[in-house]
Each structure stands twice: as structure tokens, then as C-alpha cells.
Amino acid sequence: MLITLKEAATRLQAANRILITAHVQPDGDAIGSTLATMQILRAMGKTAEIFIDDSVRRNLQALPHFEQIRRPADGEHFDADLLLVLDTSPDRIGNVRKLTDAPLLNVDHHVTNIGDGYALYVETKAAATCEIIFKLARELGEAITPAIATCLYTGIATDTGFFQFSNTRADTLAIASELITCGVSPHFISEQMEKKTLAEVIGLRDALNTLKIYYGNKVAGMTLDYATVSKFDSTEGIIDEIRVIDTVDVAFLISERAPNVCRVSMRSKDVDVAKIAARLGGGGHIRAAGCTLKTTLKDAEKILVEAIGKAL
Ligand code: 5GP
Ligand code: MN
After folding, report:
1. Pocket of ligand 1 from Cβ distances under 6 Å
2. What DSSP designation does 97 have?
3. Which ranges in the chain belong to alpha helices (H)?
């Protein structure tokens, strides 16, 4: 069920114990939006706790209040009267679903999220869920402290590739500008987000060695086996190295997370990769999407390259 921003605000005002979560393999927008919302709700006098069923990449651990994020333990229960799911549809929150039976409120910006069977405020034009949380804070009449602004700016900056991707709009920059007025230091966030260890840069070299080109230079892909994936704290951003090839429309990265578990990332300049990902059981945005293929690295490559070929 689709609801308005006002209705989402009303549901938050009515709740007292809110469990906040976001998708597994959390990115800057997932962590930024949950941390910002936790602070906003606590300022309103509510109990608000974040549970995410995954580890958080090192770069994002620099965000204010990061240490508050918990991972659900086996059999754990959390007494909540609202489950707030950010930056994803509720099917990608892992075991957080088992923590509570509280009613669900979903706030997201993914086109593939249609709110089937749950209350959803979705703004597909928003570059990041953090843009929506900024508006929600205004709707709730809550102040944006420097710490909240830092979390929101990080989500917006990372989801737009630091204001370079096609989802960057005038509104995106206007909100970013307001956040800087609220106390954000853009260079501090850029420095934290771009940091890499030596092992990661060496891993990047290994990743680029797997580069393959398909369909007359229109598609470029990398396939990282488990040993290579293990060199990285996160594989986020690796795909950007090949997305930039001038002839390439669709770039992909397949990373083997475990035997027969391959994570797929896709980026495009034209083709709707959200559709391709959705057909393979995933989702995302028109120009950035992903899915998981439960098969070998070789098979995953074959399945994906075929699916992309059909969409070209
Ligand atoms: P990334 O390639 O950065 O992991 O993901 C690109 C975009 O697609 C992100 O917005 C992410 O949330 C979405 N996405 C990635 N994998 C999946 C998936 O398995 N299911 C869904 N619904 N969305 C995904
Ligand atoms: Mn996002």
C-alpha cells in the first residue's frame, strides 16, 4: 500500500518503540539513513534502535553513532511497536524480520519496490533514501544537527557517486547545500569514503585482470572468485572502474561470496538494468541494480551475459 510522506510522519509520531533497519550489504545510504532516523526519533523522545543483519564496511564506521548499530542474534526478540525499513523492500533485511511482529513502515527510493502488502512511502526520483529522511525531518519539525546532517549527506553523496550519476537533480544539490549549512564537512566525508587499504588496491588489480568484453564492446564484466573477494572489506565501487569505458552500456561485477553464492552488480548508461535484475530475482534502479545467483561463478556469468544480451 502506497502512503504519503505526511502519513509516514504520522505513523512515526504515533509509535513509541521503533526498530529501524535497512538492507543487508548496507551501503552509505542504508547506514546514513538509519543512523539519521535513529537520532531524529530519539530527539522526539522515542526509543529507536537499529538492527542490520550484516557487517558494515570500514569506511562507513566513521559515521556518528555507528557503534549503536546492532546485528540480530539467533532467537533474539525486540519489543517494538513499529518496524521501519529503509532503503529497500522488506525482503532484503535478513533475520531482522524475526526480531518483531510489529507493523511495518517502509521508506525507500527503489523503482522495483511496489509496496505489495505493506505501508510504503516511495520516491523513485529521490537520489537517495537520505533525501527522503531530510524531508521527513522537516515534516516532523525536527532540527537537523551536524551529526544527523553528516549521516544524511553521506547517503546522498554515496548514492549519487558524489553528485555525478544521472540521479543527481537540482533538489539533490539543494538538500546537500542545506546539510552543509547544518554543519557537514564535505571533504571529511569524501576522505572517509574513498579510503582504501593496500590489500584493497592490490585486489583491484586482480579484479581488473578478470575484465572481459561482450557484445561488440557494449558490455564489460568482471568476475571475482572467493579468494579475490576476501581481499576486500567491501566490493562497492570496483564496478565504477569499468562502467566508464566509452563503448560500454552495461557493466557488471560478479563476486563469489560463498560456494555457489554469486552477488551481481550492474550499472548502465541506457539499458534498464533494474528489469534484468528483477528477472533474476533481484532489483534496484534503472541504471544501478543487483541480484544474487545461487550457482557457480562460471554459470552465473553465463546466465547474466545471456540476460543482458536479451535486453540490449
Ligand atoms: P549494488 O550493485 O550497489 O549492490 O546495488 C545497486 C542497486 O541495486 C542498489 O540500489 C541496491 O539496493 C539494489 N540491489 C542490489 N542487489 C539487489 C537485490 O538482490 N535485490 C533488490 N531488490 N535490489 C538490489
Ligand atoms: Mn539508496
Report:
1. 23, 88-89, 92, 110, 112, 265, 282-285, 288-292
2. G
3. 5-14, 28-43, 129-140, 146-159, 170-181, 186-194, 198-208, 226-229, 240-243, 273-279, 297-311
Fold of 198-311: Diaminopimelate Epimerase; Chain A, domain 1 (3.10.310)
Ligand 1 atom nearest residue 266's Cα: 2
- Cα dihedral 162, 165, 171, 173 sign: positive
The 3-state DSSP class for residue 41 equals: helix
pLDDT tens digits along 2-40: 999 999 999 999 999 999 999 999 999 999 999 999 999
Vertex 32 angle, CA 38 and 222, to 5°: 145
Tell me the three state secondary structure of residue 252: strand
Alpha carbon distances (Å) from 290 to 50, 110, 198, 262: 24, 12, 27, 11
Note residues around ion ligand 2 (Cβ under 5 angstroms): 29, 87, 129, 159
Where exactly are the structural domains of the chain? 5-193, 198-311
Residue written as grid cell 528483477: 278
What is the pTM for the complete model shown?
0.94
Grid coordinates standing for 24?
543487508
User: Could you give the percent of the chain with pLDDT greater than 90?
Assistant: 98
The CATH class given to the 5-193 domain equals alpha beta
